[in-house]
Amino acid sequence: MPVEISLFDPFSASDADFAEHYGVMTAVMGLDHPRQSLPTLEEYVTQTRQPEAATRPKERWVAREDGRIIGSAYAAYPELENRHMATVRVIVTPTWRRQGIGTALLRVILPALRARGRTVVVGEGVKADASGDLWAREMGFAQTHAYVRQILNVPEAAPGLWQRPVSDGFRLERWIGGAPEELLEQYARGRSAILDAPIGDSTIEFEDWTPERVRAHEADLRARNVENRVVVAVQESSGRVAAITEIQLFASKPDWAGQGDTAVAADFRGHGLGLAVKGAMLRWLTAERPAIATISTHTAQDNAHMISINHALGYTTTATLAEFEADIAAVTKRVESR
Q1: Residue 81 is assigned to a structural domain of this protein
Q2: What is the model's pLDDT at position 329?
């Protein structure tokens, strides 16, 4: 029986379909990322039904054989920077790999990307040197970037590692949700320090942070019931925000936190501010949210300084992930020839 590809709507999907969708994810993660903690089925349903970021809507598809879901995919469409791109992830149950399922999904996805005016497709979350890496290259994708996943196992961590005082001449500020009005402009400027982070050969553009963009981002997080915690280092003499770090918490993952951006402005590097803001964040978070057991972060593989900061705070590196890019027209031609 031929494989059937169809859209997957998480809001109308049946319990049986969601269980199969979840089964694909857990089978893939269990093989490719065995050290990664997994949500329960109930948590997975809640997470998948979480409203998407307003600036990055998604479409989802599933592949079925004899009615059973054996693969899934999504495409995300940036609506601010990178409007020429779509970000895609395709996964297939391990026992069904190398049988054309991923290619069948991609064959259906590509017209949807073109219909939205996208010309470049980005593959994300691909485990380096694994089957997905090989398949992406066969489809004509080129690796442009690699990053490492680092995990902090909070119950096994040494809190003493987080005691990182801020340098003389700086003070720490923190908030949940919205930046204080008096720091808003400098916070937006501080966030823009991420613009010089290593991105390999990727053509993805970072966000252009302005006060208006910050406020829109904060509103979007509130609308999706995401708690955003921020710690910054402020230079006393100038009032400039010299370093920032953020953590995001989700009601559907009560024992997990995701590290957002961490950045230190170029002219303030070398003062230990990255360690100071991240250490302060960990002390604050664990004091107020003792249920948090895991904190996850992703860092560019060639950003040795940030990787070493995370190691100094107790994080361990659990996986290397690759990012791929390709011209949609070229990939379409490659897929149609198979």
Answers
A1: yes
A2: 95
For residue 234, give every residue at least 6 positions away whose Cβ sits within 8 Å of its Cβ, in sequence order, or none: 170, 171, 172, 173, 183, 186, 240, 241, 242
Closest CA to 100 of 69, 139, 53: 139
Q: What are 57's two structure tokens?
A: 């809507």
166 class by beta-carbon count within 10 Å (0-12 exposed, 13-18 middle, 19+ buried): buried
- Domain of residue 128 covers 4-148+322-336
Supply the CATH number for residue 256's domain.
3.40.630.30
Please name which of 148, 117, 88 lies closest in space to residue 326, comparing C-alpha atoms: 88
- Global pTM? 0.86
Is the residue at 259 inside a domain? yes
Name the residue with tokens 């900061």: 309
- Both 71 and 210 in a single domain? no
Weakest-pLDDT range from 87-96, 153-162, 195-204, 263-272? 195-204
169/233 Cα distance (integer angstroms): 10
* 98 shares a domain with 178: no
Render pLDDT for 293-332 as a digit per residue (tens, 0 to 9).
Answer: 999 999 988 889 999 999 999 999 998 999 999 999 999 9
> Within a 10 A sphere around the Cβ of 285, how many other Cβ atoms?
19
* Predicted pLDDT of residue 222: 92
Calculated CA dihedral for residues 326, 328, 330, 331, nearest 10 degrees? 80
